[in-house]
């Protein structure tokens, strides 16, 4: 399913999304992940740790991504199947795009702090490890959470 421009634009505005997978007992596991690219019906997410999400996707490729903007009262849930791409096979451009998004997040936090908005006192993104693997999700269904 091709991702509509409205959804594509909305997702690109988000600094992270909530990724839901199924654990070995078929319970839902949620985790925050950074999205790095959207191409037609595919979403690319980087995961910095090979823990729960990784193990869940190895067992069961079912995945959903949820993004919400409270101020705009807008949100989407995308459902589909995921494939794990090991770090040695990740396109170097995707890593560069991820590094750029981290730099943008740090800059936005600094700007908000200067403007007097509460922000984290440090910049945790600056010390994040390199991504361990890539999640390549093929979108099969899109749900508008506000419509």
List keywords for this structure.
3 helices, 6-stranded antiparallel β-barrel, Pnp Oxidase, Chain A, alpha+beta
- Going by CATH, the architecture of the domain at 5-87 and 131-144 would be Roll
Number of strands: 6
Uncertain runs? none
**Could you say which structural class the secondary elements and strand pairing correspond to?**
alpha+beta
As an assembly, this protein is single chain
Please give the share of residues in helix: 25-40%
What global shape is seen? globular
Name of the CATH class of the domain at 5-87 and 131-144? Mainly Beta
Our estimate of the beta-strand percent is: 35-45%
N to C succession of SSEs: HEEEHEEHE
Radius of gyration: 16 Å
SS field, number of helical segments: 3
Give, in spatial order, the strands making up the sheet with the most strands: 1-2-3-6-5-4
CATH superfamily of the domain at 5-87 and 131-144: Electron Transport, Fmn-binding Protein, Chain A
Q: What's the rounded overall pLDDT mean?
A: 87
CATH topology descriptor of the domain at 5-87 and 131-144 = Pnp Oxidase, Chain A
Largest sheet: 6 strands, antiparallel, barrel
Through-space gap between termini: 19 Å
């Amino acid at each position: 399913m091709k991702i509509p421009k409205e959804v594509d634009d909305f997702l690109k505005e988000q600094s992270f999304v909530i990724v839901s997978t199924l654990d070995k007992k078929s319970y839902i596991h949620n985790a925050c992940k950074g999205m790095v690219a959207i191409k037609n019906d595919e979403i690319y997410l980087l995961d910095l740790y090979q823990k729960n999400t990784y193990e869940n996707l190895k067992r069961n490729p079912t995945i959903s991504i949820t993004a919400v903007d409270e101020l705009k009262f807008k949100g989407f849930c995308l459902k589909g199947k995921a494939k794990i791409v090991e770090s040695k096979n990740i396109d170097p451009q995707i890593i560069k795009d991820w590094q750029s998004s981290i730099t943008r997040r740090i800059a936005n936090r600094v700007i908000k702090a200067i403007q007097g908005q509460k922000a984290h006192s440090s910049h945790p993104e600056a010390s994040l490890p390199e991504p361990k693997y890539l999640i390549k999700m093929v979108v099969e269904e899109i749900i508008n959470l506000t419509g």
